[in-house]
Amino acid sequence: MHVTDSDGFYGAEAVLLGLCAELQRQRHAPFIVSIGPPGCGERPIEQIARSRSIEVHPIRMVPGPNPRGAARLLRLARHERADILHTHGYKGDILLGFIPARWRPAPLVTTVHGYTDVSWFDRVAIYNRLDRLALRRADRVVLVHHGMTQTPGLNRLDDPRWRVIENGIAGLDDRGDEGHVDPDVIARTAGRHPVIGAIGRLSPEKGFDTLIRAFREILRSYPEGRLLILGEGPERDALERLAAQLAISDNVLMPGYRPDGRRYLRLFDVFVLPSHSEGLPMTILEAMQAATPIVASRVGGVPAVLAEGKGGLLTTPGDEAGLVKAIDTVLHADEDTVRMQTFSRERVLARYSSAAMAQRYVELYDELTGPS
């Protein structure tokens, strides 16, 4: 039983559905419990999971500490005879992690996909601190990359219950048809050069403000260029104001959240990940698989995935000048850029498959339940 509280479809959601699909191939019976607030309607992960024939149980409950909600999860787990409870995100971690182990009907595994960077007194920051306490009560805790151990509270790999299982990406033919490329986006980028692309939640830790400032400098050399940022989040207004202040609003496109962001990679001359913090972002793996040139911050698992620059150029988070230089280098499309594209595609196919990821999770589950 996989438990998640998701209002979009980004990296963690893609990882979860890829894991479920691979578990089905191995004749396991995964199902997703999708938590949401009352009246929220169908969530993207529910729609996409159903389109891929993955069983989903939507549960609506009020936010915050919720003993009744936790009890509902336990009843469902017992009814479905779940062998493993696997949470993805602080909501499920807290709901199930603070329940005494003897009351849980199955062992608890939690995957930490990453933390949102917020102020100390923000509500999410409080949940993150509660999450760290809940993790101590889980039977197994999974980090998606060794780089995450630099995050306060996650440097616990000396504990045998804590593991690292790197994210995996599904094959090009295994992800279903999640939509199409917006015709308006195609029209607004067609014939323009360059198209610099980014995908992610519009939140502070993603560093899109640095990217917008860097893009203003790129426009001095490429006045017809376009910056395309796919995603939605609390920073939208601030980012739009920044583009207006820099007088580049006509060149900055933010069409909103798209569940099929990988389809837009073919429009990008370069994919940029300007984040201040990450685990192992699926967008990097998707760009590698698509052989799209990459410029990314040196954060979390990104340097290791890109083999310290062999698969893409690495920059310091928040370094606007360094970002400009790296993007400009890639846009010249010299032999080094072509080599990086080839290297990154071969690397992701060889090492970061969802099949390999699922096998490692099955081995972890077997530790707790015995071989299936």
Describe it:
By secondary structure, this protein is an alpha/beta fold. The protein has a 7-stranded parallel sheet with strand order 3-2-1-4-5-6-7, with helices on both faces. Strands 10-9-8-11-12-13 form a 6-stranded parallel sheet, with helices on both faces. It is globular and about 65 Å long. The relative contact order is 0.13. Residues 173-177 have low confidence and may be disordered. α1 crosses α13. It has 13 helices and 13 strands. The protein folds into 2 domains: 2-168 and 353-369, Glycogen Phosphorylase B (Rossmann fold, 3-Layer(aba) Sandwich), CATH 3.40.50; 183-351, 3-Layer(aba) Sandwich (Rossmann fold), CATH 3.40.50.2000.
Short structural summary:
With 372 residues, this protein is α/β, with parallel strands linked by helices. It has 13 helices and 13 strands.
What topology does this entry show?
Layout: E1 2-5, H1 11-25, E2 31-36, H2 44-51, E3 55-60, H3 67-79, E4 85-88, H4 90-97, E5 108-112, H5 123-135, E6 140-143, E7 162-164, H6 183-189, E8 195-199, H7 208-221, E9 226-230, H8 236-245, E10 252-256, E11 270-273, H9 282-289, E12 294-297, H10 302-305, E13 313-315, H11 320-331, H12 335-351, H13 354-369
Parallel strand pairs: 1-2, 1-4, 2-3, 4-5, 5-6, 6-7, 8-9, 8-11, 9-10, 11-12, 12-13
Helix pairs in contact: 1-13, 4-5, 7-11, 9-12
Number of helices: 13
- Superfamily (CATH H level) name of the largest domain: Glycogen Phosphorylase B
Rg: 21 Å
Q: What is the spatial order of strands in the main beta sheet?
A: 3-2-1-4-5-6-7
Q: Strand count, sense and closure of the main sheet?
A: 7 strands, parallel
- Give the mean pLDDT: 90
Structural class: alpha/beta
Principal-axis shape: globular
Number of strands: 13
Q: What's the number of domains?
A: 2
Look up the CATH topology of the largest domain.
Answer: Rossmann fold
**CATH top level label of the largest domain:** Alpha Beta
Based on the structure given, which CATH architecture of the largest domain is correct?
3-Layer(aba) Sandwich
Instruction: Give helix and strand order, one letter per element, not per position.
Output: EHEHEHEHEHEEHEHEHEEHEHEHHH
Ends apart, CA distance between termini: 15 Å
Quaternary structure annotation: single chain
Q: What percent of residues adopt helix (DSSP H or I)?
A: 25-40%
Q: Which percent band covers the strand fraction?
A: 15-25%
Low-confidence stretches: 173-177
